[in-house]
Amino acid sequence: MGLLVRLHYWIAQQLNYLQPLALLGARFYVAWVFFASGLTKIRDWDSTLLLFQYEYQVPVLSPELAAYLGTAGELVLPVFLVLGLFGRFAGIGMSILNVMAVVSLEEIAPAAFNLHLIWGGLAAMIVFWGAGKLSLDTLLERKYG
């Protein structure tokens, strides 16, 4: 049993070295997905406004305000994620965007819903563990923390 426990802890220690790369990959992937969505929205703003008016049913906000806020979030928050700057804040913002995207659609395809679950899980990982060692957050923490 002792050998098995030591092997387990040795493997865990080796995997811990990969955590910064996993967090970096999660940040880049989620950032890319949302940034690409934001770029699509600004390329055809009239269509975006129509989608928010008739397709996306965002609660509480007017369709126009929801379009502006959602698009701004999709363009700004990914930059923070890629840099690893205020990573937890960006992760929370991405989580809110992700939930609102699912909630605002009357009908969502199962495959699309599954992608939102993956993006939400990755964003949650960043919220709970931070941006990781390969981030500006780590540099700022060393300097000011």
Number of helices: 7
Q: Tell how many strands the DSSP assignment holds.
A: 0
Mean pLDDT: 95
The ordered string of helix (H) and strand (E) elements is HHHHHHH
Shape: elongated
Structural class: mainly alpha
Terminus-to-terminus distance? 41 Å
Q: How many structural domains can be distinguished in the coordinates?
A: 1
Helical residue percent band:
over 70%
**Binned strand content:** under 5%
Radius of gyration: 18 Å
Oligomer: single chain
Q: Residue ranges: pLDDT <50 for 5 or more in a row?
A: none
Please describe the biggest sheet, giving its number of strands, its sense, and whether it closes into a barrel.
none
Characterization of this structure:
The model has no long low-confidence stretch (mean pLDDT 95). The termini are far apart. The longest helix has 25 residues, at 19-43. This protein has 145 residues and is an all-alpha fold. Helix 2 (19-43) crosses helix 6, helix 4 packs antiparallel against helix 5 (87-104) and helix 5 (87-104) packs antiparallel against helix 6. It has one domain (22-144). Helix content is 81%, strand content 0%.
Lay out the secondary structure.
Blueprint: H1 2-16, H2 19-43, H3 45-54, H4 63-83, H5 87-104, H6 110-129, H7 136-144
What is the gist of this entry?
The chain has helices at residues 2-16, 19-43, 45-54, 63-83, 87-104, 110-129, 136-144. The chain is mainly α and 145 residues long.
List the defining traits of the structure above.
145 residues, mainly alpha, 7 helices, 81% helix
